[in-house]
Write a structure and sequence with these properties.
Layout lengths: L5 H8 L7 E4 L2 E4 L1 H12 L4 E17 L6 E16 L5 E12 L6 H21 L24 H4 L19 H13 L1
Antiparallel strand pairs: 1-2, 3-4, 4-5
Length: 191
């Protein structure tokens, strides 16, 4: 049997860390670097990844700068990103796919305009995919930007028949993944 441990589930059910909440244009959000850091804290190094499944240029425009001396560029992209979660033993647990479209602000370099739009749309799609994991990764922010938990509990922790109730040791037939082997070797070397 594979799955998340009790500690991982409890962490995912906690509200978002208030210091991880940023605000922009009246909206609350969790910065991409905080999402990535929290994914690593909860699942471990090498036990999550994200993949851009699609990236499409929707439009590009040119406009004069405010002083009329330069050409400014804007680009808008749509993307879908898949977030994959694995347990401590490297077995697939869940995947979440989300989409977003985003345009950058006017920039004087055409390549930089495209790079900023691509980076931004990928970041937003990843953050949207991460909310599938619950409050700790920003779900509660969709409740008027509140940091307190929206989910507040799961039957995984209270149902005596739940197969994921508190598994914290690998199955007898589990093969360690390269990431787990590297972490074990590093831990043993520090002793």
């Amino acid at each position: 049997m594979t799955g998340l441990t009790r500690a991982q589930i409890e962490r995912l059910l906690r509200g978002i860390e208030p210091s991880h909440v940023d605000r922009k244009q009246g909206m609350s959000y969790m910065a991409q670097h905080e999402v990535r850091a929290e994914l690593t804290r909860i699942f471990g190094v090498g036990n999550w990844d994200s993949q851009v499944e699609s990236m499409q240029l929707l439009w590009e425009t040119e406009a004069p700068s405010s002083d009329g001396k330069k050409t400014m560029y804007r680009a808008c992209y749509a993307a879908s990103v898949r977030l994959n979660i694995r347990d401590y033993w490297g077995h697939h647990v869940a995947s979440f796919v989300e989409y977003h479209a985003e345009a950058n602000s006017n920039l004087p370099d055409r390549g930089e305009a495209h790079a900023m739009a691509i980076t931004s749309v990928e970041s937003y799609a990843l953050r949207r995919a991460a909310i599938g994991l619950g409050d700790r990764l920003g779900l509660g922010l969709y409740n008027d930007g509140k940091a307190e938990p929206l989910v507040r509990g799961t039957l995984q922790l209270s149902d005596k028949e739940s197969p994921l109730y508190a598994r914290s040791t690998p199955p007898a037939d589990a093969e360690p993944t390269p990431a787990v082997e590297r972490l074990q070797a590093a831990t043993n070397a520090q002793r």
